[in-house]
Amino acid sequence: MQTNVWLKYVPIIRILLKKAKTEDQSLALNVSDFERAGIARKSGYKFEIKFSNGRVDNVIIDSPIASFLAQSLLADASVKELFLQNDYTINMNTKFQLTIKQTSANEAPVAVTEAGDDAEA
After folding, report:
1. Model pLDDT, residue 121
2. How far out from the chain centre does Cα 17 lie?
3. pLDDT digits (tens, 9 = 90+) for 12-63
4. Is residue 54 part of a domain?
5. Which of the two ends of the chain, N or C, has the fewest CB atoms closer than 10 A to its terminal CB?
6. Number of domains the chain contains
7. Alpha carbon distance 80, 86 (integer Å)
8. By residue range, what is the domain housing residue 62?
9. How many CA within 13 A on the CB side of residue 41?
10. Run of H or E residues at 47
């Protein structure tokens, strides 16, 4: 049931992951979504998920809400591709706000052109 809550947010998170290339992104989650699913608590939730090389790179087993988010994101083919291309950190604070940061790029090196190619200079 917790996965259903996150499935609502996957399309938005996918867009924010793409935008995170230029600057950190944040998303205020609707607390009532979590309350209806029976998983909200007054003190909120706080977690950090690190994605590297297309998989979770830190231990989140003790936070079921983080585990369900990671499962939901990794089940989306577009998000999985982004996670293979770049490393990300997703944090949630106790006020149900997600922060998405791209921490590095896993892209292949760009080929350097020869100096003689710049004939107009």
Report:
1. 45
2. 6
3. 999 999 999 999 999 999 988 888 877 766 667 899 999 999 999 998 888 8
4. yes
5. C
6. 1
7. 10
8. 2-106
9. 7
10. strand 47-52
